[in-house]
Amino acid sequence: MAFLEVHMVQVREIIRRWQAGENKMAIGRASGVSARTVGRYIEVAASYGVMRDGEPPGEEVLAQLLQRNHPGPLPARETPAAARLAGREEQLGRWLQEERLQLTRVHELLIREGVTVSYTSLRRYVREAGLWKPLKTTLRMADWPPGEVAEMDFGKLGSIVDVETGKRQTVWALLIVLPYSRHCFAWPLVQQTLAESIAGLEAAWRFFSGVPQRLILDNFSAAIAGTDPLAPRPTRGFLEYSQERNFLCDPARVRKPRDKPHVERGIQYLRERFFKGGSFRDLEDCREQAERWCSEVAGLRVHGTTRQLPREVFEAEEQAKLQPYDGVIYDVPQWKEVTVHPDHHVSFGQALYSAPTTSCPPGTKLEVRGDRGLVKLYRKGELVKVHPRQQRGGRATDPGDYPAEKTTYALRAPDRIVRRAAELGPNVEAFSLKLFAGPLPWSRLRAGQKLVSLGERYGGERLDAACQRSLAYDLVDVRRVQRILLQAIDRESPPIEDPGTPLGSRFARPGSAFDHRQAVLQEATA
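User: That's the sequence. What structure does it adopt?
Assistant: Structure tokens below.
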């Protein structure tokens, strides 16, 4: 409720002018009060011993004068807005408390029903009527030390049209704010991926020429895998990046903007003061203009809270407290869970990489980490294989990853067969060299493997002799070599010994002994 309030300085001015000889009307005009009020203060001052030609009163006497003459609250008078809203308390209570509508929505509904009041009048009315919760009491937190913390958030800016392609893109902003100095950096982007986010952070560290000790960031899926406020889980890729740049990852709680208050309002400021009304050729041009704007406009404005220039505070007090930044662009890794295929390879980045058969047989689950230079295979956290990164459609195969019995044929490598043949004998080696002497040596791999298997079965000495005989007749045929081996084995077999005794008949009596027709015929003729 409104009432007329007289301040201490006005009371002192009234007494000072009265002692200077001015009349009540002149004192009232100079002090902004009525002559009647001036007379009341003079009357009370005289009761405290203040004389017109005496000494000015002290602070205690002035306080007593102010307390004795303090007017009470004026009677409340109904405003036009309150008259229009009278009788709608039940409806307003249902909208705000039961249906939980926002007050802005309630204002729209009232206008739709023909009740024209301002939003400020509506807010004051429902608050005085107890229909709307009062504002929460807040506390101002202690400021962060310089160089310790940076706050990061994403916000939508709008859309731009690429001048060359004519394609319209929705542009977001990755905004970094240093809470101590309020210096900021903005990085426009089109996707909130891990690679794009890290690229924006790298640009921010270059802009600030240093890295903070802690980064308070939003809960976006590329960086945070879980939303537990007590135990947030950064993704492996972002955690690895934070370890590389030596800052602690401190995710804010979900839907808790006050966890990073310094950056929240910065998104709106960036959109309204930089992006809207701007002209951009493409995304790169937007990024260049954003960096200049952060340095020359946002950095040199008088901040509304600190009343200082953020860039000057940063350069004078905070920049030296940041961790050093080496300027080397971070190689963003990619992580992927894969399964070893039946061909002993895994697929990553549209390329194939072999996995060791001994420790990772087909069907094994692996984790793959790939960057611009290397691809690493992990099994249960243990590094099992490293390959150079291949282009799309490429393949990296280590012969040692294949089973030993299949390596030669799978790799189409006659040299391996020749080396194995040399171990079996010089003639076997000469035979294998002649076998692979054609224009397409890998087409005779099966014959070469057959030759080596003959040595493993019949021995190197026998195979070497067979190859010598085959080469003497210029017969480069593994089947002929196999027959020579078999014939040699037959000749080496001992002859079957003759017992010297004739074998007996199969039956004790001849078959005629069982022919009774002859006997019957003889009896008939007798």
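The mean pLDDT is 85.
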